Amino acid sequence: MTILKITSILPLIFSFLILCYSPLKAQNISGDEEAFIFHKNDAGLEWASCPEFMPDDCRLAVLQGDPAGPNADVFFKLQGNSDVANHWHTSAERMILVSGELRVDYEGQDPVVMKPGTYAYGPAELPHTTSCVSDEPCLLFIAFEEPVDATEMD
């Protein structure tokens, strides 16, 4: 009879342990396992300078990931009526223009002017120039597959 009582309460004990452990496990969420959002004007964005060959007032803000590692997302901000010299990236870029009008001229292709909401794909290592052709600043969302970099062309 004692064995029967113990075996009948084992599922209850097991369920209790699972319920007690689950909240602890849920609090252990980190990095890419937790959802989050940023607005383009979010006060929590940390804006840093762009590479030296880009305009002084150019800025980057990391939205997700480590820019020194794979799969980082950034905002790239370029002031109105400013240009970025010919350059290339180790990574492919997946981009959506958030504001402004941005002219992109990839080597061997016709230039395009992106307007807000426009998606663009830039292959890895393909040289290009970029110009914010609007009076207002251009804000570009970029998803990098490889570490974030930009190499100026000679």
Strands of the largest sheet, in order across it? 1-2-3-10-5-8
CATH architecture annotation name of the largest domain: Sandwich
Number of strands: 11
User: What is the CA-atom radius of gyration, in angstroms?
Assistant: 24 Å
Distance between the termini: 87 Å
Number of helices: 1
Uncertain stretches of 5 or more adjacent residues:
6-30
- CATH class group of the largest domain: Mainly Beta
Beta-strand portion reads 35-45%
CATH topology of the largest domain: Jelly Rolls
Instruction: Give the total of domains.
Output: 2
What would you call the shape?
globular
Overall pLDDT metric: 85
**Main beta-sheet strand count, sense and barrel state:** 6 strands, antiparallel
H and E order: HEEEEEEEEEEE
CATH superfamily of the largest domain: Jelly Rolls
Percent in helix? 10-25%
Broad structural category = alpha+beta
Describe, in short, the structure shown.
This protein has 1 helix and 11 strands, in the order H-E-E-E-E-E-E-E-E-E-E-E. It has 154 residues and is of the alpha+beta class.
Helices and strands in order, then pairings?
Blueprint: H1 2-26, E1 47-49, E2 59-64, E3 72-78, E4 82-88, E5 93-99, E6 102-106, E7 112-114, E8 119-122, E9 128-132, E10 138-144, E11 151-152
Antiparallel strand pairs: 1-2, 2-3, 3-10, 4-9, 4-11, 5-8, 5-10, 6-7, 6-9
